[in-house]
Amino acid sequence: MKRRLKAERRGWFNRVAALALVGAWAAGPQATAAPAPSHEVTFDSHSFLIDGKRVYLWSGEFHPFRLPSPALWSDVLQKMKAAGFNTVSIYFSWGYHSPREGVYDFTGIRDIDRMLDAARDAGMYVIARPSPYINAEVDSGGLPLWLTTKKLNNRSADPEYLRYADEWLTQVDRIIARHQLVDGGGTVIGYQVENEYYLNGDDSRTYMEHLKQKARADGIQVPLLGNHDGAYVEGKGAMEVSGWDFYPQGFDCSNPSVWKPAPDMARSRKEGEPLFTAEFQGGAFDPWGGPGYGKCAELINDSFANVFYKSNIAAGATGQNFYMLYGGTSWGWQAIPQNYTSYDYGAAITEARQFEGKYYEDKRIGYFVTTTAPLMRTDPMPSAWLDDRGLIDIARVNPETGTQFHLIRHADSTSTAQSSARFSVTVDGQAITLPQKAGTALAINGRQAKMIVVGYPFGAQHLRYSTSEVMTAATIGGRDFVVLYGDRGTAGETSFRVPANAQVRVVRGAVHSDLKDGHLSLDYTHDGLAEVVVTGGERPLVVLLADRQATERIWRTETAAGPVLMAGAHLLRSATVTGKTLALAGDSDTDKDAVVFGPGVTAVTWNGASVPVTPSGAEDGALAVTLPTPAPVTLPALKDWQARDGAPEIAPGFDDHAWRVADLTTSNSITNPLSHPVLLADDYGFHTGNTWYRGHFSGAGADVPRGVRLRVLSGATGGAFSAWLNGHFLGSVQRGDDGTFPFPQGWIEKGDNVVSVLTVNMGHEEDYQSRNENRTGRGIAYASALGAPDHAISWRIQGHAGGEAAMDPVRGPYNEGGLFGEREGWHLKPGALPQGKPVTLPVGEQAPPGVTWYRTHVALSLPKDQDTSLGVEFRDPPGRHYRALLFVNGWQMGQYVSDIGPQHSFPIPNGVLLPQGDNTIDIAVWKTEEGPGGLGEVSLVNYGSYKSSMGAPSSRR
Ligand code: GAL
Hints:
11 helices; disordered N terminus; TIM Barrel; beta-galactosidase, domain 2; beta-galactosidase, domain 3; 8-stranded antiparallel β-sheet; 8-stranded parallel β-sheet; elongated
């Protein structure tokens, strides 16, 4: 029984009759500029339905706040779409939009309308996740910076908290509401309430109920989804569709070949709801000093996707969202203290917008799930008999078409054994053993799962069985196509029902065919791309037999005239058909040959220009095309550096009279004990990055401190602080909170003495368990004078210039902290660095601990019709101890800690970096130790360059 939305039953919206729409809805929404019709989003035990049609939600997580170039949002969305993703799941981070209490900003890089329009234009459904609390390894779990000083109970029914949360939701829901699919404004089909909320008491249930009602009151009509792992599946505050959150390999990427087993998602099924993973592992975050994202991509690799995502399908999941699909950058001070700047996540699309191996596995599975209609309504069925006891079959069947889906893998999903098996299934009512050919078997490599399809009707055809896997089937220009694949060098066997008079032609590759009793059997070894055309039936059948490598360059996209297939090209983003011309948009590399299968077309354009076309002459309607190749890119060296002192605060004579006197006597921080007066940076409105303290004391009289003991909270491993007395270096503490600094006798002056302390807030804690942990103190928690009363030292404090009141209106509240250069806005002013002196990198001479600000300019003129992804890389000899902030054209795109790492390479999105323009690179280096050297070698790095319809955006717009 189809379960209607509660919202609908309660009459929250008027359902207008669903309009018949052109195109394959199962594959995602059509990109259209026409007046938007109304739609309905429903669900039942089997799947979500859109306008009554079943849809497999193949979804990836993407955070616009981690890509501060709106022009590139479409790039990521198009790359997702090209891999068969029909849905994007998006967190909206409250703090990113609210620089201070009562102020909300949805402009520029924070333009949610633009993001949701881009999703619609890319043909993607959206699951909106404004929470209010998102976790997401983002500062305070997305709670705003200004909330760090409020006395309230986060994530609860506390009226004070709800007042603020509602303020955010009112703002963000208004935007989401106008992009819902149901009333035609956009493609939002689901709305998640809170995030991983497990508290279960009455207060918590009241909170969740409040959030649900708030969403409805704000005009949210689409299903309300959860991500609460078994909480809120029923009772007060229950979600309409539970969502599950699975990270089976956890977050330590150090041993990427060690696997934990696949969970059985079927245990999470709830009657009346589709089985849906609100988050399933798509990578992992990596801590300061961690093994690096390369290792996370290895842990959560294509084999992981192969075994785990297919196991979810076999468990009956018809909605899978992968976290992250594109991770991006926790630029500015957005990261939590435990994580460094990159949020690459080892995801399918790298931070630098390139494809990981997993991208192609996601594509193979994505095409299959979104275009194989019988898969969207299946029930469990008995397993096939297998002659290898180490293997299992998890089988499902569509009760209407009888299509069977057999997932064959090792019983121990972590096994690395190379196995092979014969198995028996019922085909056309008869039990047969596969493969049919004597002496052959189905190869199952370690950590591999194969989805064997039996009895699959598509177009006017019927696939009896195949030991290759189905990638997709499509009807194009009056021909039925099916793409099947397997590992290079392995045998494949496929059988179709065909008319008795069928004619078979092997267009390319080595395929043996056998026609008997109305069955066509194909025998072959997967090797590149083979093709067989079968005629004589209602419509020609084109069988494309690919090895896994070949599938990487097979693309499918939808047009108003039907689907298009392409074999070749680095990426096919979109296609449109006008008359006999097929206009393709995509990215090409040095391999220029491709074949296109389009509906009744004779001419092809690629990114707006005609390309040479050769018809194959075969019954497949193929056009061979030659694509343009990219020009080589040569990167200029970064030279002509200038440098200057960046920490005048160290000098005793520095004028700090305009700094805030530390005089607060109370704090709402959860940190205890605290100095009196309070010294925590947040309490004085300094929420990000570096905060300076200057403690004055008199060198005369009885109460002359003999030293200072400091407890400084910066977060986790990545933090540090340094202290000076009257300009003399007292020491630094890294990887710890406590430092005791005796004052050498000769350094104390008779009159005014100054202790200068440089601290850093590496981000506020998340509040995963609703304990107000975002209010953990930052900066100096406790300062004791040694040998004198604490009040002998009186402190002044200075962080981000202007505090909350003066956040950068373009870059937002996380971009900068309180280094001298940041307060002076050096990073925002191109041109010469004030009082900068020429310097050569790497810096070799002995430089004292402190801050040095470096600057260079680089003019780029990268090819305009190419999408080139660049970054900035640091290289240091061992033994260097410094931390650096990297600014590109004023945007803080990286924090580098030379002796912790692991990040050395910082992708800079085009738009922040100007690919055809003058760029200013600033690096603020905080040298924490005495010892040799300062800034090391710094260079540009190229992550990939393709001839592309994206071109090279010259601004963020
Ligand atoms: C999830 C959480 C996400 C993120 C993820 C780990 O459980 O919902 O926000 O923190 O874990 O990357």
